[in-house]
Write a structure and sequence with these properties.
Elements: H1 3-12, H2 26-44, H3 51-62, E1 66-67, E2 70-74, E3 78-88, E4 101-111, H4 112-116, E5 122-129, E6 132-137, E7 168-175, E8 177-183, E9 188-197, E10 206-215, E11 218-227, H5 229-233, E12 239-247, E13 250-260, E14 265-275, H6 282-285, E15 295-303, E16 308-317, E17 320-329, E18 336-346, H7 366-377, H8 389-393, E19 396-406, E20 415-423, E21 426-436, E22 439-450, E23 453-466, H9 467-471, E24 482-493, H10 496-501, E25 504-516, H11 517-525, H12 527-537, E26 544-555, E27 558-559, E28 563-568, E29 571-580, E30 585-594, E31 604-611, E32 615-619, H13 622-632, H14 642-649, H15 654-664, H16 682-695, H17 707-725
Helix pairs in contact: 11-12, 13-17, 14-15, 14-16
Length: about 725
């Protein structure tokens, strides 16, 4: 090759590389760094880095410390966020308690696309493993489940309502849940176990809870099985409810379904209640009911926006059947109860609790037994059970009740009709009426709170009550006669016994054509006392009772005597004295005047003293008769009673004729002529009683024996007893 060719060849050859100048491209370096960083991040990544942020946010929302051991996130179309060993501490002041809530594991699934697109929060799954919740409310009203800001002004502590709608929740799974609730003012300490059951269809899953403990000082157990939270929002599928509760001896069962529980609509529930006493339902229902005998009732339970309704009620209370409707408005400051009830057959003893007496044939609860023993051991003859004013003030009530037929061998009443209202503790009994044969026993009254007691105004009208029906309960007397009159009481006390024991008023009653007195008195007063009275009054057997008139004023609990007159075919008996309802004692004298002897000679005189429950009778002698004779002859002639007597038993009755004869001829010993009673309304009877009260002199003698009179009787009787032992 020529020199020229070699030169050209060297010119076309590439230049030799420079030593030490080889550097990778920048892009390669960046890409490599990113890859390494991603690899390191993947290897070292931990969601626990976000735990402090989550704890701060949760603690700020709940106003108490929140801790999480580990945080897990599984990305995807549905993001699943999990937290291990979740703990929510108690707020300030409750540090001595276990944590407010703990969970071994909490998982929440979130569909992120609806959230980003404005479709709301969609949670297809919430899962709790071994959740434990501790709730407490103290006697001062403080509670550990108050999530308001403790540092905010009192008026701003209530959580503000946002505009966010309820999240859509799919399935809720709970495994091994526990709940502990303590409430000091309710004297409640309950524990519950909660879990969910699995089902192939999510709509078939159930939420199950079993509870036990004490509620209002009574042992309680309960079992609940219902739909899960997803069922609450699905209006296409009714929410199933199965609940059974036993509280003391009270049993409650609720079964059925609710179409729209969030809107409180479409309930198809059957409620059953049973127990020894309906008054024990108050802690469970908040409704005040007087004491009753054992009961079992059931009916349909539903609710509207304003009322909870217990419809088509059917069951028994004691030996009485019970039906009707009951509604409760819980939205008022004081819950309002509207009850329209009826019975086809009713035993009046079952309603004893409404009058302060022990209901039923015998006590059915420990409280009733204690009250019955206390009443039996006391000297009281009227119901002495205290009125529970806090309970009466706790509920406003409109109450209507009708019993078609009263069945009780001890009760001579045919039916009962009641209409009453309770408003702010004031009880207004518009009427409490009984039919007795062709007659009526009509009563009304008001009871106004006065501290822990009530001021009572009670009126009772007895119109043409047939004596044979009145005595039918004894099973021995089958005579005739008509009974009528009026009774009024105005007093203040915390029981019926206290009201009468402090009361003013009185009674005016008459019995016309009473039949055989030897049958009437033993039935009315008891066999032994009745026979003793007959014997000591000197009344022969088979004596026809023509008329009984009693006009007895009540002054500060002492029932005195204006008039007590008993007319038979051969005798006239008058009485004077008093019955003291303060200490439940009697101090009374009766004297019989035979129409065939002079006024100074009495075939029968007696003095009744002692406790009303067990009085003692002092047999009369001629000496004692003369000692009290002047007192008894001073008894007011009952001419002013004529309007009341005519209204109660009729214008042509023997009693009315006897009064007219005494008015025209006070010394008359003629036997009244029989007449036919007139039918009079109870309004006429009350008007007649008012007319009598207006004309009767208020300062008239009460009929009480003076201390001198009692001393003279005692002296004569002591001398007689000494004579028997000498």
């Amino acid at each position: 090759m020529t020199d020229t060719g070699k030169a050209l060849t060297r010119r076309n050859d590439p230049p030799p590389p420079r030593q030490g100048r080889a550097v990778p491209p920048v892009r390669a370096i960046v890409a490599g760094a990113i890859c390494v960083a991603v690899l390191v991040l993947v290897i070292l990544w931990s969601w626990d880095w976000f735990i402090p942020l989550v704890e701060r946010r949760a603690g700020a929302a709940l106003h108490r410390r929140v801790t999480i051991a580990h945080l897990h996130v599984r990305p995807g179309r549905v993001i699943v966020i999990g937290a291990d060993d979740v703990r929510i501490d108690q707020p300030a002041g409750f540090e001595n308690l276990p944590p407010l809530a703990t969970a071994k594991r909490l998982d929440v699934a979130i569909r992120w696309w609806p959230l980003l697109s404005g479709g709301g929060l969609d949670l297809p799954l919430i899962s709790l493993d071994t959740p434990v919740v501790e709730l407490q409310e103290r006697a001062d009203g403080s509670r550990n489940y108050d999530f308001s800001d403790p540092n905010a002004p009192k008026g701003d502590r209530a959580p503000k309502k946002g505009d966010a709608s309820m999240p859509r929740i799919g399935a809720v799974r709970i495994v091994g849940g526990q709940l502990h609730v303590m409430h000091a003012r309710l004297h409640t300490d309950m524990r519950g176990q909660v879990h969910t059951t699995e089902a192939s269809d999510p709509e078939g899953a159930r939420l199950v809870m079993d509870a036990h403990g004490t509620y209002v000082r009574q042992a309680i157990t309960g079992h609940f099985s219902g739909g899960t939270l997803v069922s609450l929002q699905d209006r296409r599928q009714p929410y199933p409810v199965d609940l059974e509760v036993r509280h003391g001896e009270t049993r409650l069962a609720l079964h059925g379904a609710v179409e729209d529980p969030l809107s409180l609509a479409g309930a198809r529930l059957r409620l059953s209640l049973a127990g020894p006493d309906m008054s024990l339902l108050y802690p469970l229902t908040g409704v005040v009911i007087p004491q009753t005998p054992p009961y079992r009732v059931e009916g349909n339970l539903d609710y509207t926006a304003a009322h909870v309704r217990f419809r088509d009620l059917d069951g028994h209370v004691g030996s009485s059947d019970l039906g009707g409707d009951l509604s409760i408005d819980p939205h008022q400051a004081v819950p309002f109860v509207d009850a329209e009830l009826h019975s086809r057959r009713v035993d009046l003893a079952d309603l004893g609790g409404f009058f302060g007496a022990t209901p039923g044939e015998k006590p059915s609860t420990a409280q009733q037994q204690e009250e019955a023993r206390a009443h039996a051991s006391s000297n009281a003859v009227l119901p002495s059970t205290p009125i529970n004013m806090p309970k009466i003030r706790a509920t406003n009530v409109h109450f209507a009740y009708h019993g078609d037929h009263i069945e009780n061998r001890h009760t001579p009443l045919d039916n009962i009709d009641v209409l009453a209202d309770i408003r702010d503790g004031v009880i207004d009994v518009h009427h409490l009426n009984f039919a007795v044969g062709s007659g009526t026993l009509a009563s009304s009254g008001t009871f106004t709170p006065r501290g822990d007691a009530v001021e009572a105004r009670i009126g009772i009208d007895m119109v043409r009550i047939n004596l044979s029906r009145l005595m039918q309960a004894t099973g021995r007397f089958h005579g005739n006669g008509v009974f009528g009159g009026h009774l009024a009481v105005h007093g203040t006390g915390n029981s019926l016994a206290a009201i009468v024991g402090n009361g003013d008023g009185g009674m005016t009653v008459a019995l016309d054509q009473g039949g055989d007195i030897s049958a009437v008195l033993p039935d009315l007063l008891g066999l032994e006392l009745g026979k003793a009275l007959l014997s000591l009054l000197g009344l022969p057997g088979e004596t026809e009772l023509k008329c009984v008139i009693a006009d007895m004023p009540l002054r500060q609990g002492i029932l005195g005597t204006r008039t007590l007159l008993i007319e038979t075919g051969d005798t006239r008996t008058v009485g004077k004295g008093d019955i003291n309802f303060r200490d439940n004692t009697i101090d009374y004298a009766l004297m019989t005047d035979s129409r065939h002897f002079a006024v100074g000679s009495f075939p029968g005189t007696l003095h009744i003293t002692g406790l009303l429950k067990k009085p003692s009778i002092m047999p009369g002698t001629e000496t004692i008769a003369r000692a009290v004779g002047s007192v008894l002859l001073g008894v007011v002639t009952p001419v002013a009673l004529l309007p009341t007597i005519e209204a109660g038993v009729g214008k042509e009755s023997l009693c009315a004729q006897a009064i007219r004869q005494m008015r025209d001829n006070p010394a008359s010993g003629q036997v009244p002529v029989a007449g036919r009673p007139q039918r009079v309304s109870h309004h006429q009877a009350r008007a007649a009683h008012r007319a009598h009260a207006a004309h009767a002199p208020h300062p008239a003698p009460t009929g009480r024996l003076s201390a001198a009179e009692r001393a003279r009787i005692k002296q004569v009787w002591t001398q007689r007893m000494k004579g028997q032992h000498s």
